[in-house]
Structures are given as structure tokens and as C-alpha cells.
Amino acid sequence: EDDFPTAMDVLTDKVLDGLLSSEFDKSSCLSRYQSVAYRKESAHKPSSYLISRLRSYEALHRRCGPYTQSYNKTVEKLMSGQHTEISECNYVVWISFSGLGNRILTLASAFLYALLTNRVLLVDRGVDMADLFCEPFPKVSWLLPSDFPIANQFNNFDQKSPHSYGNMLKRNPVGNSTLQFSYLHLAHDYDDQDKLFFCDQDQTSIQKVPWLIMKTDNYFIPSLFLIPSFEQELNNLFPEKETVFHFLGRYLFHPTNPVWGLISRYYQAYLAKADEKIGLQIRVFDTGTGPFQYVLDQILACSLKEKLLPEINQNEDIGSLPLNQKTKAVLMTSLNAGYFERVRDIYWEFPTVTGEVIGVYQPSHEEYQQTEKHVHNRKAWAEMYLLSLTDKLVTSSWSTFGYVAQGLGGLKPWILYKPENQTAPDPPCRRAMSMEPCFHAPPFYDCKRKTGVDTGALVPHVRHCEDMSWGLKLV
Ligand code: GDP
């Protein structure tokens, strides 16, 4: 273990201010220890309460994790359908669903829910979860064993499933306290009954179900902050509300060694030596094949207006320009290579008015979103992570890919407004209120009064998002 750089050795006792357990084998997951050499130190410190709850969660996970005695017992009960004595071990099973950015956000949401309800989080490995992420808890795996009895039903679970909590309520409004498992459908197409998950009263009945199987493509944490029975605990865990995903993300998501190779090699080759690193995350949801001129216009307008990139000098009279050896590295990510090529060419063809030297880099251009392909998702994960290592970040509206980068990086990004009618919006972008992700499909329901309510106007720390007027985010 002596072959690691010495800067990291001092950190072995207290990894990330105590956020990470010190009980891991280092070589199995290099990123866990080496990332400190690539990141600026976080401006935020985890609360001592969060640290102690993480350590006690790890102990619970060790007692209840896959193939422990308690796990085997509750699986038996699940198969026999008998409801006997209450076990210490209750579970949330997270189903692998949707794009990688979405998955990272929902996994963090499921973990916080598990922490709040003293459940153990188990992860459906899907096609490539084990290929992308190191085990976050010491000694016992977070992966759901593939012989889990109802794993073969996960693909069929959807809004219509009779097993869903919402549909069960429709059949039996008083609830059924003897269920062995319940399917929580928290995806974007969930209905009013499914949304009752976010009511205290429903949490009380859900509490009795040993196995909760959850499918979601949403970062639902903002709405957990509106459930009265979780309020105090969340306050203690996160005195600074905007650090929720920042800490949960840094705690849970460590790239596996192959992905860490993609990240560290790229970083060393193109980013490390620059005086400043700028991230530009371009995600275009419009149909048709880009690149689109209005998107390029918007990227440049935002970068120049916010002084993230310098203006160019078009008279080519380079003799009179200030001599400034400062370098900026611009890391662009996009499915398309076109935006990157144009920005790169601009700074090649013309000098900057400041004399700064601008290098523009884009790791991949995968053309379209692909599922079930290992290298594709490895690259996507590596790129989110690389963006998180920049000093200043520009992101695209509605993109969970960008949310992951900003949260891990502890960065308040400039968000490019979503273009309407194929025109660059004016202003092109705005600074985010906080580094938190946006919950895209929150409920608007007052559980006590049983009426609609604007959930973005109830407390000062849960607001509507900058990039989606009906979304909710923590600030
Ligand atoms: P979202 O759709 O922007 O919210 O982000 P997701 O990550 O959930 O889904 C988009 C998927 O498209 C990613 O997981 C990648 O597979 C792919 N993708 C989108 N943008 C990029 C990019 O800039 N680079 C790479 N490598 N993949 C991308």
C-alpha cells in the first residue's frame, strides 16, 4: 500500500472529513482514495450527526445485508407470505431504471429514504451497476443477490402493477398491514395514489412492510423535506440544505478502477496543467440531428456574458495584445461533436483579447443515448465525474447528467435556459441558486387538508427550480 502518493496517506484515517469509512481495502477501489488529489477540498463539512448515522447505517447493513442470517430469514418469509414477528431488518430495493444520471440521483434518494426509515438499501444490479460503481459499504455488498425471489418481476413493475402501493390503496383504502412487500412506483408517470407516498400517514402504514421495491427516475429528496416526521432528522443530518446530494453523492458513488482509469488519464492529459478549468455540459432535448446554430450561439453568449471565456480579437493584430500566459482548459461534453469543434476552432483561429490560451477538449461523442452497452455508460460516468472536477460549470436545463456533475463537484452552475422554437433564449443562462438537483415531477398535495397546494411555496428551503418551473429543489 506504500505505492500511493504521500498526499493521500495522511487522509487514510479521515477520508473526506470522516464521510467515508476507513475499513476498505484500497486497491479494490482506487478512486475512493485518489480522488482527493483531483478535487479541490469541499467548501462544506459533513455534520458529525451525518457521519455517525452513516457509521450506524454501515453496521445495520452488515447485520442485514445479502446472505446474512437475517436476510435469509426475511427472504424466507417473503416467499412463504407469512407475517410473523417483526424483524430488525427491513429493506428498500432500488430497481435499475432510466439513464445513468437519473440512476445516480434516484439511488441517492433511495439511500436517504433508507437512512430515514432504518431500512437497508439493496441495489438491483441491472446491466452494469457493478461495472460502474465500487461497493460503498464496507464488508457486505449492496447488490441484491440475483436469486432474490421476485427479481424476475422487476421489469414488469409499472404504474399499472397490482402490487404497487397506489393500486393497493385503490382496492383497499385502509391499507393492509400484513403485506410482505410493496412496490413503490415513483416514476414520472405516477398518479395521485402513488404520490401519497409523500404523506406522513402513508409512511406510517408503509413502515410495516418488510420489503419495499422502488422504481423511480426522479430525485425525490426535496419532497422528503416536506414530510413532517422526517423534518427534524433531516435538519440534524443536513444543517446546510444544499449539501444533501453533495455529501450523499461523494459518499455513495466511487468509480470502479476501469472508470477511474478513464477519468484520471483524461484529467492528467488535458486538464491538470491548466490555470482554470471550465466545464460546458451540452444536452439538447430537441428532436433532429444537431449541431444547431442556436445552441452554439447560446453557449457562446452565456460563456462570454458571464466571463467564463474571454472574447476573441478579430483584427488579427496580435502584436498589440497583452502577453498573458494563463491557460484555460474547457471540458465539453455532448452526444454531438459539433459544438466542441466550433468552440475549439474559434479559439484556434483568433487570439483572445486577454491573451489567455484556451484549449478545448471533449472526451467522446456517442451520437445518441445507448443502453445496455458497457463502454457507453462507463464513458458517461467518467464524463460526469470529469465535469465535477472543473472550477466553473455550465449545464443544460433538465439534464440529470449535469445535476450529478454539479452536486459531486460542489458547484453552483450557470444553467443554459431551455431553447424554445429553435432560438437562443435571452438571457442565455443564469446562475443556479444552489448545487442541488431538481425534482422534476413533485407532488402538489397538502396531505392534511387533502387539497392541492404549491409545494414550492411552503418552506424557504424547498423552491421551484431555475430550469423547470414546476420542479422542486433544495436551496
Ligand atoms: P439526462 O437525460 O440528461 O437527464 O441524463 P441521463 O444520464 O439520465 O441520460 C442520458 C444518457 O445519454 C446518459 O446516461 C448517457 O448514456 C447519454 N449521454 C447524454 N449526454 C452525454 C454526454 O455528454 N456524454 C456521454 N458520454 N453520454 C451522454
Verbal overview:
The structure is a single chain. The protein is of the alpha/beta class. The chain folds into two domains: 40-252, no CATH class; 271-435, Rossmann fold (3-Layer(aba) Sandwich). 34% of the residues lie in helices and 12% in strands. The protein is built from 16 helices and 14 strands. The strands form four sheets. A six-stranded mixed sheet has the order 7-6-5-8-9-10, sandwiched between helices. Strands 2-1-4-3 form a four-stranded parallel sheet. Strands 11-12 form a two-stranded antiparallel ribbon. α5 (100-116) packs across α11, α5 crosses α16 and α11 crosses α16 (400-409). The model is unreliable at 1-13 (pLDDT under 50). The site of guanosine-5'-diphosphate has 20 residues, from α5, α15 and α16.
- The gyration radius over C-alpha positions equals 23 Å
The whole-number mean of residue pLDDT values reads: 93
Coarse morphology = globular
- The helix/strand series, from N terminus to C terminus, equals HHHHEHEHHEHEHHHHEHEHEHEHEEEEEE
As laid out across the biggest beta sheet, the strand order is 7-6-5-8-9-10
Which residues form runs of ≥5 with pLDDT under 50? 1-13
State the share of residues found in helices, binned by percent: 25-40%
Number of helices: 16
Kindly report how far apart the N and C termini lie.
41 Å
Structural class: alpha/beta
* Count of extended strands: 14
Ligand kinds: guanosine-5'-diphosphate
Strand residues, percent: 5-15%
Number of separate domains: 2
How does the major sheet shape up?
Answer: 6 strands, mixed
Keywords: Cell wall biogenesis/degradation, Glycoprotein, Glycosyltransferase, Golgi apparatus, Transferase
Organism: Escallonia herrerae
Subcellular location: Golgi apparatus, Golgi stack membrane
Protein name: Fucosyltransferase
